[in-house]
Amino acid sequence: MTAADYTVVIPAFNASATLAHALDSVMAQTLPAREVVVVDDGSPDRTEIARIVAGYGGRVVLLQQENAGPAAARNAGVRASGGAWIAFLDADDSWLPHKMQAQLALAGDEDVGLLHGAARLDRLMLPEEMDFDLLWRANRICTSMTVVRRSVFERLGGFFEAPELIGAEDYNLWLRIAHAGWRVRACEGLVGHYTPAEGSLTSRIERCALAEIRNARELGESLGLPRRDIRWKLRAIRTDFARHLIHARCPSPARRLLVRALFERPTLERIGLMSVSYVPTPLLDMRRRLRKRGRQTLYGF
């Protein structure tokens, strides 16, 4: 089978437990890749990662670098490759066999810059296309399901590598692609599987929230967006991540995020979330158990 003109770039950090599964899903594609690049981002388990890559008999290129974050690792993989399209996959996620064939079928028009698709059964209903305004309202793009035109990636400077953007560096690029006028198209149906990363749930959500806030503020200003749109986005981020933190039973950081949005625009939703954040955890857990039994609970918590 003839390989298609796309490169797969996989950043890997402490990924020895999942990397082979990710690579196997790449090798199973009905439309094979021109090249596959794994970038070891300073992993303590780099010997094991090298052993896994070596097991693919030269079909996978391994790059090793000092730890610099996922954006720097992805950029390094792109620089070391030559495909006309770049498919990004995180080492703890995987693709379905038809993924690349289905997505590249949408790539014929020269104004298409970004392709993506669903990675969860509960999020299958993606818009066929998203312009900047729709993407600014909410990021519905899973990085591991994205395919970016190389010329667009290089023209826009790839991923921004600032450590403060880790957790939002992908969204930052998707927004810049859409703002530059490139079409963002979604493939119909499930194309892969997203697996949430292990680690401290509270610190991860808080870090992503701060990265999203920084991204919205700085990118919004650099793109010349109206101040009201930036302020709306900041309130939406604080509200959304506060909801995630409450669901994770982390009320204090949830309140820290929520208080500013509540002060600026005290909606019923934000008042309700702030109230729920003071409910004792055992009561919230009881509501969650009742919800699983098919009963209604306040705000789904």
Structure overview:
The chain has 301 residues and is of the alpha/beta class. It contains 12 helices and 9 strands. It has helices spanning 19-27, 46-54, 70-79, 99-104, 132-137, 150-155, 169-179, 201-222, 227-247, 251-264, 268-276, 281-292; strands at residues 6-12, 35-41, 61-65, 85-88, 94-95, 112-118, 147-149, 183-190, 192-193. The strands form 2 sheets. It has a 7-stranded mixed beta sheet with strand order 3-2-1-4-7-6-8, sandwiched between helices. A two-stranded antiparallel sheet has the order 5-9. Helix 7 (169-179) runs parallel beside helix 8 (201-222), helix 9 runs antiparallel to helix 10 and helix 10 runs antiparallel to helix 11 (268-276). The protein is globular, with a radius of gyration of 20 Å.
> Helix coverage percent of residues?
40-55%
> How many DSSP H or I helices?
12
Question: What's the SSE pattern?
Answer: EHEHEHEEHEHEHHEEHHHHH
Largest sheet: 7 strands, mixed
Span between termini: 50 Å
**Low-pLDDT ranges:** none
Category by helix and strand content: alpha/beta
Kindly report the average pLDDT value: 92
Largest sheet strand order: 3-2-1-4-7-6-8
Query: Total number of β-strand segments?
Result: 9
Overall geometry comes to globular
| Beta-strand percent range | 5-15%
| Backbone CA Rg | 20 Å
Concise structural overview:
With 301 residues, the protein is an alpha/beta fold. It is 45% helix and 15% strand. Helix 1 links the parallel strand 1 and strand 2.
Features:
301 residues; alpha/beta; 7-stranded mixed β-sheet; 12 helices; 15% strand
Fold topology:
Elements: E1 6-12, H1 19-27, E2 35-41, H2 46-54, E3 61-65, H3 70-79, E4 85-88, E5 94-95, H4 99-104, E6 112-118, H5 132-137, E7 147-149, H6 150-155, H7 169-179, E8 183-190, E9 192-193, H8 201-222, H9 227-247, H10 251-264, H11 268-276, H12 281-292
Parallel strand pairs: 1-2, 1-4, 2-3, 6-8
Antiparallel strand pairs: 4-7, 5-9, 6-7
